[in-house]
Design a protein that fits this description.
Layout (H helix, E strand, L loop, with lengths): L34 H11 L2 H13 L7 H30 L5 H12 L6 H24 L9 H16 L3 H9 L5 H33 L4 H13 L4 H4 L1 H6 L13 H9 L8 H10 L1
Helix pairs in contact: 1-8, 2-3, 2-5, 3-6, 3-7, 4-8, 5-6, 5-7, 5-8, 6-12, 8-9
């Protein structure tokens, strides 16, 4: 595993216990008054409480016997994901308070995750490894282009930037755990399994998030071909995040792939430099830990 992993040796995964939007009502169309963009992000958020609990269980199932550095990364990954789940659960409640019913979207997530029930734990880990790459490249795109959250509700935008920064920070944990768990596999077997899983995950991710967003648009009274056209335009053209991540997605299938082949920690540093006073930077968190 050590030879195959390129996770930076000076990387520190720092859980940041932050809270967002607790004392305010989130606007129904919080993303610049746009129901389409709001619907897509809300559909993504609906996946996180169940999905990230699944990620934690899948990775922790292989924590015994891993190298000490990876064991520490798994602990910090777990803490980060638990806080992400908590904050998106709170956000989803605010979306419900603004009039959206997310139950169909959440039921679809549960249905997808149930596919792994009764299967060997390596299946869940493979799905997690693929989905973590997906979330990391989406996070990169979100932080790299400020236009994605331009004129968004401030606390909601802060939630998504914070989440994205930590997804980048721990993007190698599931993959390194996968490399350790499959260390006795041939390269051919490892690549074949991960490629098939990524294709399956990608199909479900795009279909389900699109269907979920269209369901939320339906609740806004936006339906039919017009709704589909507007959603596809938002996803693939302008701002076109799904199109923009294609290269990073395709890199997953290349020989020698590792999430940290691209060291994009500069995006985390840029986020931390602009973190709002109510949500302290990682540097402040570290100082507080030392003082304690």
């Amino acid at each position: 595993m050590t030879a195959a992993s390129v996770t930076p040796t000076d990387l520190t995964i720092i859980p940041r216990d932050r809270r967002f939007g607790r004392d305010e009502q989130t606007p129904r169309w919080w993303l610049n008054g746009d129901p389409v963009g709001t619907a897509l992000y809300n559909a993504l958020s609906a996946t996180f409480p169940l999905g990230e609990a699944f990620f934690v269980e899948s990775v922790r199932a292989y924590r015994d016997g891993v190298p000490p550095r990876l064991a520490e990364d798994i602990r910090n990954f777990t803490t980060q994901e638990v806080v992400h789940s908590r904050e998106h659960l709170a956000f989803n409640r605010r979306a419900a308070d603004s009039g959206y019913d997310l139950t169909r979207l959440e039921a679809k997530v549960a249905e997808r995750l149930a596919v792994t029930k009764g299967k060997p734990p390596i299946v869940s880990l493979a799905a997690t490894m693929a989905l973590e790459h997906f979330t990391a490249i989406l996070a990169h795109a979100l932080l790299a282009d400020p236009r994605h959250l331009k004129d968004a509700d401030p606390q909601t935008a802060e939630l998504w930037r914070w989440h994205a920064s930590e997804e980048i920070e721990h993007k190698g944990v599931a993959y390194d755990t996968w490399l350790h768990a499959t260390k006795d596999w041939t390269r051919r077997k490892r690549w074949t399994v991960k490629a098939k899983v990524m294709l399956y995950v990608t199909r479900n991710f795009i279909v389900d998030r699109t269907a979920g967003a269209l369901e939320l648009l339906r609740q806004d009274g936006i339906t039919g071909p017009r709704a589909v056209a507007r959603m596809l335009w938002f996803q693939w053209v302008a701002p076109g995040m799904f199109r923009k991540i294609f290269g990073a997605w395709a890199a997953f299938f290349m020989p020698g792939f590792h999430p940290w082949n691209e060291d994009d920690r500069a995006l985390i540093r840029e986020y931390e430099a602009m973190a709002t006073p109510s949500n302290p930077s990682a540097r402040q968190v570290r100082r507080a830990h030392k003082a304690a």
